[in-house]
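Support request, please re-run this one:
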Amino acid sequence: MSDLNADTTRARSAAGETRGEDLSPLRGGAEAGRAPVVANRESMVWIPGGDFIMGSNKFYREERPARPASVGGFWIDPRPVTNADFAAFVRATGYLTTSERAPDPAAYPDADPLLLVPGSAVFTKPPGPVGLRDHQAWWAYVPGANWQHPEGPDSNIDDRADHPVVHVSFEDVSAYAAWAGKALPTEAEWEFAARGGLDDATYAWGEEFAPDGQAMANTWQGRFPFENLAEDGYEGTSPAGAFPANPFGLYDMIGNVWEWTATAYDLPRATADKPSCCQSKASVDHAVARVVKGGSHLCAPNYCLRYRPAARQSQSLDTATTHIGFRCVLRSSAPGH
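Re-run finished. Output below.
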């Protein structure tokens, strides 16, 4: 994942039909929080919290230094929020996602007017090898792309109800979390949960990427971005829970889709001199970026080996793409209390 074309990332839009019964489309997280559901922690996994080593000194510079961290106990969704989950939210609230809204041209004076239409950023596989420094060779702003039409207006999610919802911005996921009576995890909570108690392990399941030849997560096999061998059975997203759970019983913490966290992105001082190959630049204004975690089905060893608990990226708040989703947490009492 890399910074997208400025016009692409800024041309967040909307339009589309009003959803829900007798409800006007909601356009913000605060409004979407009205009449929230009562969070059901019985469907969640209790993470007792504790001390752990956060980050890594072994891979990308934005993960350094490995450092002691601590989190309190919390409940977390065992799977990322799916299309079916998000559809229930939309039906209940009439919410319109960022990718479905008409942007204010005055807010984006430098954007290409042709991109100031409803749409979102879509991964488009090039026909052959391209330079890995030119992300525009595989990312395109596609009018009409949104959570219900992931690849564009001619696509749909009819057979993807159990796949993670994508094309959701930070505002969208915050709105869902508020409605669900939950919250987004902090980066530390997310990483602690992803590690599954295997402190300082490279992957969420240990040190070996594919133990006994078994695919443990939905990642890219082949030469990114033009050759996807789909040896793990999936070329795009996969159903939530299609791969083994980590030791905490959590699915898809690694691969499939990146996941939003509530933590403002910051670049450690030791890494501020030079960005890595596919790392977004740190923002001087933390209001415009949050940390995303876990890697996605587009992560490949030849380009972006980020399907690990320690991996992290910066994502602007208004960005929605085909490979970013989320899950929620609930900070409540432990089981039995």
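The mean pLDDT is 85. The first helix runs from residue 6 to 10.
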